[in-house]
Amino acid sequence: MHIPSRLEPFFAADAPVVDLARRFADADRSLYLVGGSVRDALLDRPIMDLDLATDARPDETKRLASGWADDFYLMGEAFGTVGAVKSGHRYEITTFRAEVYRDGSRKPRVIYSDELTEDLSRRDFTVNAMALRIPAHSSEAPEIVDPHGGLADLAGRVLRTPLDPAVSFGDDPLRMLRLYRFVSTLGFAADEAALAGVRVMRDRLPIVSAERIRDELDKLLVGDHVEPALWGLVESRLADEFLPELPALAMERDPVHRHKDVLAHTIAVVAKTRPVLELRLAALLHDIGKPATREFAVEGVSFHHHEVVGARMARERMRSLRYPKQVVRDVSQLVFLHMRPHTYKMGWTDSAVRRYVRDAGPLLGLLNELVRCDVTTRNPKRARAIARRLDELEERIAELRQQEEIDALRPPIDGNDVMRHLGIAPGPVIGDIMKVLYEKRIEDGPYSEEEAYAIVDAWAASRDE
Q: Would residue 265 count as lying in a domain?
């Protein structure tokens, strides 16, 4: 067969992977390119790392690759995967296997196999269940192995399991979430049998670790087709198992007190944002406080302080999914602040602009983008008015940046200066004084050291009275 252009450098006679294949062939072992590497090559998508499969067991794989690999990483060895680094490329070499979860267990039981076709049958989807034999000698040609119709499904842009979905999803319940990840990243559609399988087996997802669920969600969120993927999570009720706050946004509509469909709005906002993980997480979670804060009144429905409640809920959900602390802080802060710019229509002083910049900190750009994408109204006049106010706010920020160090917002003296001036040791008193100095900086803008020391003296004198 003709080698896809993306793979030609890897299959050259002097290519490292061909050299590795020779080592395996000399030991009467086979080596195949498998999974996402084959799929992406056929789709002409970038290939970052190569996934390889072999009938050699992990110990033998390490022995055969020793002297070839520059380095090994063996975190997946217990599950049959030996990681190798060669000339800056990562290669994951996995023994043919069948992977089955025990009931209620988060750790798979791995059974090795000697047959490539059995290994391919236990993979997640047919488009990932193809293999390309790596020729060890120039007289040989690469050979595609496609026992489950992956090429046809690739052409039809369909996600289908190689075996019955009950078997494929039973082997690894995370594949149900991966189905929607590929909807998002590849733009493919799930076939009806796979969708039915998710609806039946979704309650198996919780046996998978939170970290693995989080990693799949992250990949899903930054895909180019995130909107249909999120709708799929909700409609299949898979989201109920790990992100119940999302389907909860589909609140019952009241015929008298009409309000926007919060779920549809949320998914639309996510789709409008750039594929930056923290930004899309914030878009996904920015309104999760609305169901808990909805109130009806004569003038209509309201969601007072939903951003405060939502920030707390976002922190709790992200912690349960084992997100890094910095990501939790950043996303919850974006959720907390996303309503702040809407008060600009009431007019902001320079000090209010400074507070906004201070509170947003390094998240300012992401926050402004979230606020802009949060506008999904079909009323063009209202949309233009909101956009105009946001333009004005950003212009005010730019003007203040030219006039002063608005991003720093530091007083002209620090805590060490205060201690030397007053002749006192570190303690809570220094923090109290610095709060006063910071507040002065925000309210009035830049001021001199002389003014700062005068404030310190006045503060100290007031304590002595």
A: no
